[in-house]
Amino acid sequence: MRIDGLQYANWSEKIFRQLREGGVDAIHVTIAYHESFRETVLNFEKWNRWFEQFPDLIMKGRWARDIDVARETGRTAVFFGFQNPSPIEDDIGLVEVLHDLGARFMQLTYNNQSLLATGCYESYDAGITRMGKQVIKEMNRVGLVVDMSHSGDRSTIEAAELSERPIAITHANPHDWAPALRNKRDAVIRAVTERGGMLGFSLYPHHLKGKSDCTLESFCEMIARAADSYGAEHLGIGSDLCQDQPDSVVEWMRVGRWSKEIDYGEGSASLPGFPPMPGWFRDNRDFGNLENGLRATGLNADEVAGIMGQNWYRFFERNFTPQQAGGMTGGT
């Protein structure tokens, strides 16, 4: 089983076919960065058309069992998420509406301060806001996973403590391996994993040791060390693959509508676009390289299978369904 905890590709039939060539059974796809509710609905519509056009390649994922259907029928199940809480605007009622439409992950921040929490680029992290506490509670109720991939340390730790259900960092790496702003310190990863949460390892070059020159061996050894520290059962892949996106998309991701200036983020000011991927992970056809690299570190077969997909499957199974009365989760 192969599950990718996050991608933001420029979707096309070519990429859908590459997903199948790479044996990718499920992906979490970003469909909002700074979009409003209405704009996000339009992105759901766009995917509905793709599901209609390519029914032999992809299918909409709502529950973990949809991955079983996808595997049985040779397709990839697509689960949706937001990298910002902008789709709920300032209306907590939209949490349930968006879950009903198919959303399964929502970041509480994207780099900046939001109505809910503080992003990792802010100089001061005030933690989870009053509205953030209410939204986490509602996300727990309906089965929308709290994602803190772009959030500050304090906000992430508080979210893990406040949430009644496990949360996720879908795409980041340990800060002590590659000290990027977006990568996570030990205390943050522990706060998430000790409460049953998940860390998805990112292949975005700015998050890698050596960036685009990072070796497969270095990446997989980092995962093996993380397994020793946090437990292999809490780890997965969240590639953050942005395949075929034009450089103009980086401006939307980082700037949205909040600034008139270009925010280069973690990249060089002279290279504001997408950096080249490592040669061993160019697209979805290269998941086999990851699997082989993890085996070479000495991780056992169950640990490798978990990191490649089964851990995400179990996490989806437990956390996408609404809570029943008394705090229990519904069936899958």
List keywords for this structure.
TIM Barrel; six-stranded parallel β-sheet; 38% helix; alpha/beta; 12% strand; 332 residues; 9 strands; globular; single chain; three-stranded parallel β-sheet
Q: Write down the CATH class.
A: Alpha Beta
What do we call the CATH topology?
Answer: TIM Barrel
Tell me the overall shape: globular
> Which structural category do the helix and sheet elements fall into?
alpha/beta
Helix content: 25-40%
| Number of E strands | 9
Roughly what is the average pLDDT, rounded to an integer? 94
Quaternary structure annotation: single chain
Rg for CA atoms: 18 Å
End-to-end distance:
18 Å
Order of helices and strands: EHEHEHEHEHEHEHEHEHHH
Share in β-strands: 5-15%
Major sheet: 6 strands, parallel
Count of folded domains: 1
From the 3D coordinates, which CATH architecture would you assign?
Alpha-Beta Barrel
CATH homologous superfamily heading:
Metal-dependent hydrolases
Model description:
The chain is α/β, with parallel strands linked by helices. The chain has a single domain (3-319), classed as Metal-dependent hydrolases (TIM Barrel). The protein contains eleven helices and nine strands. The strands form two sheets. Strands 1, 2, 3, 4, 5 and 6 form a six-stranded parallel β-sheet that branches. The protein has a three-stranded parallel β-sheet with strand order 7-8-9. Helix 8 packs across helix 10 and helix 10 (287-296) crosses helix 11. The longest helix is centred in the last third of the chain and has 19 residues, at 301-319. The chain is globular and about 45 Å long. The model has no long low-confidence stretch (mean pLDDT 94).
